[in-house]
Design brief:
Layout (H helix, E strand, L loop, with lengths): L7 E13 L17 E12 L5 E11 L12 E8 L2 E12 L7 E10 L22
Antiparallel strand pairs: 1-2, 1-6, 2-5, 3-4, 3-6
């Protein structure tokens, strides 16, 4: 018996900014800052759901470029999940691990979001412990 496809919804993304994570942020990991490794950046913006129902399990896609116009996240356009989006505009923030010593300033282009009308992922239950990078961005 064939499985019905999940209907996806494309959402507009505006007011995009990308800045280093604050020093007190769980993702900054100041004790690990060194020339090799990764630096934490906070990608923030507004996503707008024009529909009358929430869009769930929403992923954010974007191209992150360094100062020379080269992609920072090779072969990867999905930058993370922003969860459920209620009808109307919603602010979001997520962390990105950018290779250390990437020449800045970094630029964000082609940002868009896509979600579904029903859950497609297993969700953390109340009381389950989250990893530091899964916590809300400060």
């Amino acid at each position: 018996m064939p499985v019905a496809p999940a209907l996806a919804a494309d959402l507009a993304v505006t007011e995009i900014s990308l800045e280093p994570c604050p020093a007190e942020d769980a993702g900054a990991q100041p004790e690990l800052q060194r020339p090799v490794g990764a630096s934490c950046y906070a990608l923030r913006g507004v996503v707008t759901n024009p529909g009358s129902r929430p869009v769930v399990d929403t992923d954010l896609f974007a191209q992150i470029l360094d100062a020379s116009g080269e992609p920072v996240l090779q072969n990867r356009s999905r930058v993370g999940s922003i969860g459920d989006v209620p009808p109307g505009p919603m602010s979001f923030a997520l962390r990105l691990a950018v290779p250390a010593a990437t020449p800045g300033p970094l630029q964000v282009s082609k940002a868009k979001a896509r979600g579904f009308k029903a859950p497609v992922r297993v969700r953390a239950q109340a009381g389950e412990e989250l990893l530091p990078l899964e916590l809300d961005v400060s």
